Amino acid sequence: MSDTIHIQIDRADGSLQRLIGLVERRGFHIDGLMLTDEGVMRRAAITVRGRDESRCTQILRRQIDRLIGVSRIDAVVMQSEAA
């Protein structure tokens, strides 16, 4: 199952790299990433899938929320495997 996390992040150097690095280090695959620039901020919709069933998106969400440059996380949308 994959989940989409909507994040508001700074456009500062390295902020997107920190986000992607955290997701991969925590055992998730990135299935999709969509960015929208809004002035000094950037909105990211990142679709992730755990490498195994033990990976919890809610824990990943809390870890992303602690990253430098992340202003807020708007939503976590869970998507079913078969659509």
Structure description:
The protein is an alpha+beta fold and 83 residues long. The chain has one domain: Alpha-Beta Plaits (2-Layer Sandwich). Helix content is 24%, strand content 48%. It is built from 2 helices and 4 strands. It has a 4-stranded antiparallel β-sheet, covered by helices on one side. The radius of gyration is 12 Å and the shape is globular. The N and C termini lie close together (11 Å). The model has no long low-confidence stretch (mean pLDDT 91).
Summarize the structure.
The chain has a single domain (2-79), classed as Alpha-Beta Plaits (2-Layer Sandwich). 24% of the residues lie in helices and 48% in strands.
Strand order of the largest sheet: 2-3-1-4
Write down the domain tally: 1
Q: Please give the alpha-carbon distance between the first and last residues.
A: 11 Å
Question: Which H/E pattern describes the elements?
Answer: EHEEHE
Give the averaged pLDDT, no decimals: 91
Beta-strand content: over 45%
What is the C-level CATH assignment?
Alpha Beta
Compute the CA-based radius of gyration: 12 Å
Low-pLDDT regions: none
Give the overall silhouette.
Answer: globular
Number of helices: 2
Q: Count the beta strands.
A: 4
Under CATH, the homologous superfamily reads ACT domain
Structural class: alpha+beta
How is the main sheet built? 4 strands, antiparallel
The CATH architecture name reads 2-Layer Sandwich
CATH fold name, please?
A: Alpha-Beta Plaits
Helix content: 10-25%
